[in-house]
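Section handout 9: paired folding examples.
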Amino acid sequence: MIENKPVLIVDDEKNIRLTLSMVLESMGLESDEAMNGEEALAKLEKKDFGVVLLDLKMPGMDGMEVLRRMQELHPDIRTIIITAHGTIDSAVEAMKLGAVDFIQKPFAPDEIRELVSKVIDREKLDEKKVKDYASFIELAKRCMQERRLNASIEHINRAIALDPTRPEAFNFLGAIMEIRGDWLDAQKQYRIALSLDPAYEPARKNLYRTTSFYKTGRITLDEDNKDKQ
């Protein structure tokens, strides 16, 4: 079970590693630390981790390369991406490799607790018993982590069938279309989400980013995820 395995913190900033380890300890979770990509891969070879908190921007081997190698060697490990800066190319590439959970520096301890708990709880969902909108969205994220995009779309469509008036599922569909390289369909889904709720920030940010010239930022799936790009 993922909650019984330690969490690996990969970040070149000592203060960030210390903060994260203290938060995880308060949750009753064991943690280990790596200050760069090379050290992270060495630790992944020696110990069985359930979750990795991974900084994308590090000197030497960056987080994207660590993520690629993790998916080749340890595809069952769940990854939470830590980022302060990013481009659409790196965001889409990270999601192609199964990263659907992002947290942006600076972050509060409660944000880390909530996100790590969500990732752990997602693994406990029984596909045969899920009946509510939010759980179908979480199942869709789990399938994306496993790079099963068609299964992810099926769960999103089930969420839409339960409640076609909510924007979250359409925004999620837009993200999957981006991963597949279908920018026009992605923008269509973001516009549908905004038509349902003009104040829904993730879809607004995604649409703005995908229609801007520089396309900076990252894909946003959740309203509580900060995006200061």
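Moving on to protein 2 of 2.
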Amino acid sequence: FLAACASSSMPVNSIEGGPGQDITVGIAGIEEDDMILDRSGTRNYTVSFEVTNLSDRPITVVRIGVMPASQSSQAFQLGRTSVAVNEMIDPGDDHIFDIKMQGQFVRRFRNEESRVVEFRLLVGLSNEETYFYTFEAPVRDDNRPRF
């Protein structure tokens, strides 16, 4: 239910993920914590990202980061997060990384606005390559903010 799409404005030397790259990334699942953390409606989420090694050599993932896809003010926003990891993935294998994030509505959706949240996932490898992927997820505009 999430779709990867192209993106720009990433740090220098980052590689946009897509066909023909050494890795591929997908969303394996999303869990929402039912407890609201504060008066602004902030909630915790755990997003499971599956990283697959498509190369002919082992790779080692050393960092996973999530950030907003743009600087524009989306109605629902995810906070930035970055996690140091050290996971070797053999050729043809995959690994699921569970990343904890926080999100909240900062305003109501406008009538003409698409009810989605866009965010970027960065995957840093031990060879100093960083791949980025942009994802879009639907958001329900109700009293229980979810994505």
